[in-house]
# Entry
Amino acid sequence: MPTNAHDYRDLNLRAVYVNCTLKRSPEISNTDGLIDKSRAVMESNGVTTELIRAVDRDIATGVWPDMTEHGWESDDWPVLYSQIMAADILVLAGPIWLGDNSSVMKRVIERLYACSSVLNEEGQYAYYGRVGGCLITGNEDGVKHCAMNVLYSLQHLGYTVPPQADAGWIGEAGPGPSYLDPGSGGPENDFTNRNTAFMSWNLMHLAALLRRSGGIPAHGNQRSQWDAGCRFDFPNPEHR
# Structure
């Protein structure tokens, strides 16, 4: 198949990667190394990508869209939310700590959840029509556990998750080498590279399908209509 058979340049698709490493810039993030491979696949096929390192931003703790309205002096989340909502594809990426996602990943997901009640023009939840995936790195077990949590969270909020929407790399059970460490074998690992490529393509394919079809059909899932009394054929026990 020609390399440009699925070039999505005509759709102007955008992907944002949120790296939930605990390391502030300019410290090297191993997760960045895996993100770069996925970004390269997307950019080679006409998708514009953006990388956000969440720990560099002042993201307040809480479950409201803007925590400055709830006692916090500052909160960068509203700006990050605008960047995320400008993208068709969201990839949450991060390390494994104690077999689980990082505290930064948890905070980002909590703030995504804080905006889950926002509705789009069709009365659906605002994340409808966007696709999500995740990348995980570490030198201890837990890739699938971390991915399971991230992907469940994204679909619950309204993102569409395609097949094989996660990839990861773990080195020898710690303390062992990290992904970008010399001799780790991470960047050369065929299993990780295959899954990263599949994830990147599946995200692009599904984002393109949703863009061309106008998103998720707006029937049976409109919060605004449900609140107005429409029940979309759901059985009403008062009229049996």
Summary: Strands lie at 14-19, 48-53, 89-97, 100-101, 131-138, 166-170. The first helix runs from residue 30 to 43. The mean pLDDT is 94.
